[in-house]
Every structure is written in structure tokens, then in C-alpha cells.
Amino acid sequence: MPVDFEIRDQVACVTINRPDRMNAVDAETEDRLEEIWLEIEGNADLRCAVLTGAGDRAFSAGADMKSSNAASGLEYWGHARPNGFGGISLRDSLNIPVIARVNGFAMGGGFEMVLGSDIVIAVETAKFALPESRVGRLPLDGGMVLLPRLIPQKIAMGYLLTGRRMSASEAADLGLVNEVVSAEDLDDAVERTVADIKACAPLSVKAIKHTVKKTAQLHPRDAQALRTPALVAALQSKDSDEGVQAFLEKRDPVWSGT
């Protein structure tokens, strides 16, 4: 299979498994990723997801040009998927955090998947780029719309218009990467973040992600006034009372997810 998928201790582990192609995504891989995200969405017990690439060279080199080079730019655009590259770069229906475990190059669509993730942990040697303009194409699956919203527009345009590579440290300085670690520490860093998420109330985490996604483009006053079902569910939950009670009793909370 081009993608490995397993669930471990309420964590969805998604690994693009095409290391011989630097985990580039072809049509079969894209289809499988979409299936996996739909399965994750339907599993209410999951706390978070970790997305990565197999091997130690690449997170993902983006679209597999060898499998799609017969399609024109317009044909590719015409078949673009609403959830963006890998089914995740533009996805707004997933309510658990997605951690991008960036173990190497994240190019084109690979970078778009990183931009669509909630938390990014990268090795020191990771490289990021949207090099589509260098091959006469465009970052159509989220790159053009996400990057200028996440970093200053002038900086984003510099990378978009030149296709230049961004180092892990540069990405961290721009706020695109949460943590830069050595290859030896990558898994431990991911596990620490997973543990911190699982230490929080499940409905609170889901409500926070949902609210941030829904209010990103709203005026702060309008965003503050928004009352979504996710917010109401979290505030009325048993866990909301359990968290306060555990704090008062100086013990760890026992979350029920209800």
C-alpha cells in the first residue's frame, strides 16, 4: 500500500510509504489518503493524528511528476480536490489536531500538507519549498492561499515567486514550524506533543481547533461572539466539571470525552 495507517493509543498514524519516490503522491496515494482522513473523521475516539513520510529523506516531494506529467496544468487544476493536497492541506472538517512529523524534504504538495497541519515538528535538515513556478505550474492545492495567510505577505511572495527553499530554522523563525530537533530526537518530540494533547480535555481540544478554523478570517469581536455547537458541547461537558474538580483536588483529571 502507498500509505501505512494504524491507530495506536487513540492516535492515528499516517505514513506515506513511497520512499523510493521521496514519498511523492500519485493518484493511488491521493485516493488512499482521502479514504484515511474520512475514516479518521468518523472515529470519535481518536485524540490526534500524526502525518509523516517513510524513510529519512523526505516527508513528501509533492505530486509525483512521473505519474502526472501527461496532464496539462489546466487538466490538473480541473481535477483538484476540495480538501487540497493529500486530502489535508485545505481540509476543514477534521476536528482533531494533525501533527506533521517532517523528517526531510517537504516540497510542493508536501509543503502544502505541512501548511494544512496544526502542529509541525521538523528535523534540522528539513527543507520546505513551493517550487511549482520553476516547472511552469502553480501551487494550486493550498500553497498560494495558505502561505500568505500564515506569514507576512512579502515574505510569502518571495518564496512563491522564486521557488526558493526554506530551511527548518527559517520556517521556525517565520512561525511555520513549532519545533526543530535532531533526527534522533524527532520521535521523542512528537510523542511529547501527543502526550500533551492527550493530557487535555478531548472536547476542549476539538472546540479550540474548530473555533480557530471557523473564525480565522472574522473580526475579533465577531469571532468572540460566535457560538458553535462544539463550543457549547465542551462547556457543558462532564469533562468541563472534571477538569476544575481535579485542579481543586490537586490530581490529574480523568477525561471521559463527554
From TrEMBL:
Highest taxon of the lineage: Bacteria
One GO biological process term: fatty acid beta-oxidation
CDD domains xref list: crotonase-like
Secretion signal, residue range per the UniProt entry: none
Keyword terms: Lyase
InterPro entries on file: ClpP/crotonase-like_dom_sf, Enoyl-CoA_hyd/isom_CS, Enoyl-CoA_hydra/iso, Enoyl-CoA_hydra_C
An example molecular function term from Gene Ontology annotations: lyase activity
A family per Pfam: ECH_1
Membrane-traversing stretches: none
Entry similarity comment: Belongs to the enoyl-CoA hydratase/isomerase family.
Record-given protein name: Crotonase
Organism expressing this protein natively: Denitrobaculum tricleocarpae
